[in-house]
Amino acid sequence: DIFEVRGWERDKRGEVSLPEVENSKVVLSYYGLDKVRRRTEIIFELPPSKVEVEPGHAYPPSTRRMSALLPETYEAAPRIISRPPCAKVSWDLTLKPRTPLDITFSIQPSEGEGIHRVDSFDDVLTKMRDSYHEWRRGCAMLETNNELFNRLLERSVLDLRLLIEDTPQGLVPTAGIPWFACVFGRDSLITSLQTLMLNPQIATGTLRFLAKCQGTKVDPWYDEEPGKIVHEIRKGEMAKSGEIPHSAYYGSVDATPLFLMLFTETMRWLDDDELFQEILPAAKRALEWMENYGDLDGDGYVEYLSRSSGGIRNQGWKDSRGSLTYPDGTPVESTVALVEVQGYAYRALSDMAELLRRKGDAEIADRLAEKASNLKRNF
């Protein structure tokens, strides 16, 4: 699990099976605590001369800090370092003079039971190249009189495609490779705002995806509340088994007003009535969250207070453990109203008022405009 790679301590793990050897194939498998079997098939084009299967074993506990992975606020804990069962593969070969020899193999990961058929490398590569060409055709052409800057723009457009996930709701940006290759509400929303000129399909896909994942109930473990926009969605073993709350974790104070900002800005660009009607219910629930749950003490500001024992303490853009302290270094423990979040809230209220007035709902528009004015005056 990626959280283990980052240094998360686990009380127990699933079972790593002995490698299975089938002619030119070695199969590695793991049965997780989430009751899911994950397999990795290594298929050799040239059959190995010898395959040796070795059982795993554990080394004595170590207290070595994972300093490169964990911030200093984490204390070192005994770590049981283990080596899982493995297979050693070798070939006895006679090389002819001046004649190259390739040993080619493919790796096919799969999750769950049953037979998983994977296309060949060449077929997958062709499909991937086609998808990049299709992506480029759907983007605006940005060109200047500076060739170096043009190359920078082109590289950036292709790099952005690398970070985009094609979901049933449309294109959604992920946060970053390798540790954050999943949807983060804040990151996806800001990226969508900044790329409306390039390709508005990113914005529409993100709006639809986050509306589908919007909070529906009060659940402290997930920091979930009705109308709140999700912070992070993970699909690994630890999330699926409930060890961590990240299967759909809502510990972000700014994603909800950012959702409203993206909705209103997308309507400025597209003025798509069908999209407006589709996303409007989620937008209204987001407004209700800002009023009923985001403002914890009734002072008009949007605040946060982490309730999940497995969640994030600081829930703004800088969400590391030591990011918010008093001048003497003491961590801030009470409710927190971040300055930039009030700016997001003001723009969300103002822009929603403008949009709803344009769509003929003057009564709600006036109420939102008044709330925005009060927030600005009090700020």
Automatic annotation (TrEMBL):
<feature type="domain" description="Putative glycogen debranching enzyme N-terminal">
    <location>
        <begin position="1"/>
        <end position="51"/>
    </location>
</feature>
<dbReference type="InterPro" id="IPR032856">
    <property type="entry name" value="GDE_N_bis"/>
</dbReference>
<dbReference type="InterPro" id="IPR008928">
    <property type="entry name" value="6-hairpin_glycosidase_sf"/>
</dbReference>
<protein>
    <recommendedName>
        <fullName>Putative glycogen debranching enzyme N-terminal domain-containing protein</fullName>
    </recommendedName>
</protein>
<dbReference type="Pfam" id="PF14742">
    <property type="entry name" value="GDE_N_bis"/>
</dbReference>
<dbReference type="InterPro" id="IPR012341">
    <property type="entry name" value="6hp_glycosidase-like_sf"/>
</dbReference>
<dbReference type="GO" id="GO:0005975">
    <property type="term" value="P:carbohydrate metabolic process"/>
</dbReference>
